Amino acid sequence: MPQIIDGKAVSAAIKEELKIKVEELKKQGISICLAVIQVGNDPASSVYVGNKKKACAYIGIDSLAYELPEETTQEELLRLVGELNEKEEVSGILVQLPLPAHIDEDAVIRAIDPKKDVDGFHPQSVGALCIGQHGFVSCTPAGIIQLLKRSGIEIAGKECVVVGRSNIVGKPMALLLLRENGTVTVAHSKTKDLKEVTRRADILVVAVGKPKMITREYVKDGAVVIDVGIHRNENNKLCGDVDFDSVAPVCSAITPVPGGVGPMTIAMLMHNCVEAGILR
Length: 280
Fold this sequence. Notes:
The chain is of the alpha/beta class. It is built from ten helices and eleven strands. The longest helix has 21 residues, at 7-27.
């Protein structure tokens, strides 16, 4: 049986560490505050925002919630972001994505002060990651690095393959693995002989957005498999981009869905918030 990488346990450990850190910062007169903006009432977004508020409350971070109607204009949203940039007590700003179609997400992301960009999406944050300077890192890839490290999985010198090239997961994931001295290949929808590429991987990170796409024949025996996807199957049960039942028997370690990568995203968001409060 492979090692099941427990994202819930690792996430809980990080939150406990952050809770102690926040208590120490409060004694020094430093408070942390996250402002969360949601436009419209997308059900999935509402769940995510609720989970973020709970995590803030648990760790001891103050949170401000701005729940704006679907018809909010881009100008109104940018004005609010500008006001929060100026608020001294606000450490981090998070605009929940996706935004309604009439709002330019890129313009909103660029409007956030990079010092408060706890999602790690601002071009300045991404650029800092590219050239090895300090900046906030996108929470899901940062969480995957923590999962690997805290599960005793060595990255340095390993053949790492990332399937997916999104700005939020695939690209920053590749850069983080490179920073940890992995040898990195990024595969995507136009990659030829994908199975041959993925079968080279000692560490395979899958973020393709297709349920159970990665099956046994994509995976080298003894590989570590990290599944970023989350979907509902025909029976309304959660599943990932990896066909867990066929892949698990041949790999050395694997993340389950749910309970693998998912919990790490919010844990790393909390980590970024605390960092933003310290740097403020």
